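[Meeting: bench + compute handoff]

Bench side (C.D.) handed over the final construct sequence. Compute side (W.E.) agreed to return the predicted structure before the next meeting so the bench team could plan truncations. Sequence as handed over:
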Amino acid sequence: MSRQVLVISTFVCAVGLCAAASEVAGQQQAIEPEGLKVFNRSVSSLSDGARKGVRLSEHAGDGVAYLQGVEFTNGTIELDVRGKDVPQQSFVGVAFHGVDGTTYDAIYFRPFNFRAEDPARRGHAVQYIAQPIYPWQKLRAEQPGKYERAIDPVPDPNAWFHVRVVVTSPKVSVFVDDAKEPSLVIDQLSNRKKGLVGLWVGNNSGGDFANVKIVPR
């Protein structure tokens, strides 16, 4: 097989044995709390119609839940995400090339800005950060509009939407739902070339996640 698809499963094994990813081409499986290493959040199981996944709790500060046993370099990360249309209380996304609870790159979304009447707010719908050196505040102040953009077509801010993050270091491209063109394309600011993959939520925010699929390049 020239291309292996890593699909997140429920199993957590010791280092040197099996990882928390099974190599099942072309399939998606539900993620479970037992397969995550969580920082600054609690995690619970979630079942919502056809989707089975996890919910990260609301809490002050940023939080991340890493998929145990998965190390990611280049490739594609796909997942379904759901936030809510409540200002400053919904920041949801994915971390990659992670080290711990404070050091990672991330792509995240502000659903409450998806359909905002203010064009400036709509331009803050999807964001790249490289923690801890390049948080959103620094990037917006020093390079406005470069690391955050609007999303077109616009998802429902209270519904599930599909995210596909394509990493070919240093280039990162972000696609939402069935869009053919990326909503955001950036060059990474960190010097990390590999690391952990995790579910990410921002300050005072929780979020729902399902159907994670990782395709290494």
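W.E. noted at the follow-up: Residues 136-142 form the longest helix (7 residues). C.D. will use this when planning the next construct.
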